[in-house]
Amino acid sequence: MFKEMITAIGTLLIICVFLYMVYFLTRHLGKIGKVRGNAKYMKILDQMSIGQDRSLMIVQINSEYLLLGATGQEIKVLEKLEEVERVNEGEDSNPELPDFKQLMEKLTKRKK
C-alpha cells in the first residue's frame, strides 16, 4: 500500500512539472515570436490587433508609408499614407480617464 501511494504521488508530481513547463514555454515562446528582424529598407512603425489573426500595420519603406491589413492568409495594402502623425495618449485624447498618479495619491491618503 505504501509503495502504491508513492507511485501515485510521483505520477502527480510529474504531471504538475509537465504542466508548469508547458505553461512556461508557451508564455516565453510567444514573446520570442514577436521579435522584429533587422531590415535595411523597411520598418514596422506601429501594429494594432483588431481581432483573432487580424491586425493593422503602418510600415515605412524608405520615405513611403503604407497601411497594411494582415490576416492569417494574406497581407493587403489598404492605403498609401502621405505622412504619419503620432497619436498622443495624453489627457486631451481621453479626458474621462483619471490620472494614475492622482488615483494613487488618493488611495495612499485613505490608508493613512
From TrEMBL:
Q: Which Pfam families match?
A: FliO
Top-rank lineage group of the source organism: Bacteria
TM ranges are 6-26
The record, for InterPro entries, names: Flagellar_biosynth_FliO (IPR022781), FliO/MopB (IPR052205)
Compartments in which it is found? Cell membrane; Bacterial flagellum basal body
Major location (coarse)? membrane
Entry keyword set: Bacterial flagellum, Cell membrane, Cell projection, Cilium, Flagellum, Membrane, Transmembrane, Transmembrane helix
Family annotation (PANTHER family): FLAGELLAR PROTEIN FLIO
**Family of this protein:** Belongs to the FliO/MopB family.
Its protein name is Flagellar protein
Which organism was this protein described from? Aequitasia blattaphilus
Q: Which gene encodes it?
A: fliO
